[in-house]
Amino acid sequence: MTSSTSSHQISRKDYIFSITIIGLFFFIFGFVTWLNGILIPFLRTACELNDFQAYFVTFAFYISYFVMALPSSAVLKKTGFKNGMSLGLWVMAVGSLVFIPAALVRSYPLFLSGLFVMGTGLALLQTASNPYITIIGPPESAAKRISIMGIANKFAGAIAPVILASIILKDSHILDERLAQAADALSRAVILDEMAHRVIMPYIVMAGILVLLGLLLRFAHLPEVDTEAEDDAVGEANIHKTSIWQFPHLILGVVALFFYVGVEVIAGDTIIRYGQSLGVAMDSAKYFTSLTLVAMIIGYLAGIALIPKYLTQGNALKICTILGVIFSLGAILTPSHLVFTMPFIDLVTFKPLDLVLPVTVLFVALLGLANALVWPAMWPLAISGLGRFTKTGSAMLIMAIAGGAILPLIYGKFADLFSTQTAYWICVPAYFVIMYYAFIGYKAGK
């Protein structure tokens, strides 16, 4: 049984414990979310898809946030943050188990169904954990706390595709050769079935871990934050508000966050396939998502060091949007034949290696640096002053994660119609929308 309290009444011991637990959840978010970067090229081959079809991986995963965010808010009002987070973990475990029949029959729709269910669990988990970490401490340092969560999230995301690739794509060049030499459709089907079966064991293990974490959380002491009590801190201006639509800075934040998540997912989930399309072998390309997320971690560390002592949350957001436009143009305009070798460390084995890296791919990875502080800075700006509307506002922001469903799909269509490099033009107007919020939109209605 958890007692409900205002964020201002939480002891330092509970504060540290709560941040640690939520940090573990953000690690889980990152691990599960950024597996998509390796699933896209894997399922593209195993289920014989084109680029547009392959990016339904991100669509199925992220559209669940749009569909389930408001129901998640309703669930949280009944269960509270803590029990809602446990439920989210168990729903994710169910989604992981759907991968078993999907792999056995090599059914792309079933794989997408499993991803949708996992996204549903994450929607519940994120609808609870994001506002929790935002309001559990001083509002002026919210971006710093979310940056710490981001490091846990992106470190998990950096190692996840490498771990999964080492299991399901450990001899991808041999598989490609066998597929090329397959004499008939039946022989090809046998090879592809064998390939699809490789995801079964990793997702069984993941399901078991998620079930155990849900049980551990159920019995852990995590203070319940009462968002209704937050009204005391936002002044009389909020007392007469009757609808969430009376907060224009939130509505514009939802729009900006939609485009932000879209470009964040494009930067992390298209980069492996992009490298492949330029002729980079999977031995190097499998690390490209990790490269993007390492760039994000560097950005988060900068946020922790600079916010709020040297840099306000608003100014951090402005800098990130400007960098986003610059790096997007760099990815689009740099000739694809410019290639160099970059020293890197395998984040799982810690072995040094040399990555074959086209310069245009490096610019895509650098979008991770540009994206790093957008979520941490935008979230507290968007829910500022919502008081008793915090859970509903948070659910609307979670719905904006649907940008990760729509924009990568548009990227995939452009990649099929034009080229994988030209398709990155989708990022430029997206960053301009975020830039509007950073400079003007966050002040709307205040």
Layout of strands and helices, then pairs:
Layout: E1 4-5, H1 12-33, H2 36-46, H3 51-54, H4 56-105, H5 108-135, H6 142-168, H7 172-181, H8 185-196, H9 200-219, E2 224-225, H10 248-269, H11 271-277, H12 282-285, H13 288-306, H14 313-333, E3 339-345, E4 352-358, H15 359-371, H16 374-383, H17 390-399, H18 403-417, H19 427-439
Helix pairs in contact: 1-5, 1-6, 2-6, 2-8, 4-5, 4-9, 4-17, 4-18, 5-6, 5-17, 6-13, 6-16, 10-15, 10-16, 10-17, 10-18, 10-19, 13-15, 14-15, 14-16, 14-19
Radius of gyration: 21 Å
How would a crystallographer describe the biggest sheet?
2 strands, parallel
The whole-number mean of residue pLDDT values reads: 85
SS strand fraction? under 5%
CATH homologous superfamily annotation: MFS general substrate transporter like domains
Total strands: the figure is 4
User: Per the principal axes of the C-alpha atoms, what is the gross shape?
Assistant: globular
Q: Helix coverage percent of residues?
A: over 70%
Structure annotation, total helices = 19
Number of domains: 1
SS class: mainly alpha
- Tell me the name of the CATH class: Mainly Alpha
**Stretches where pLDDT falls below 50 for ≥5 residues?**
1-8, 230-235
Distance between the termini: 38 Å
CATH architecture: Up-down Bundle
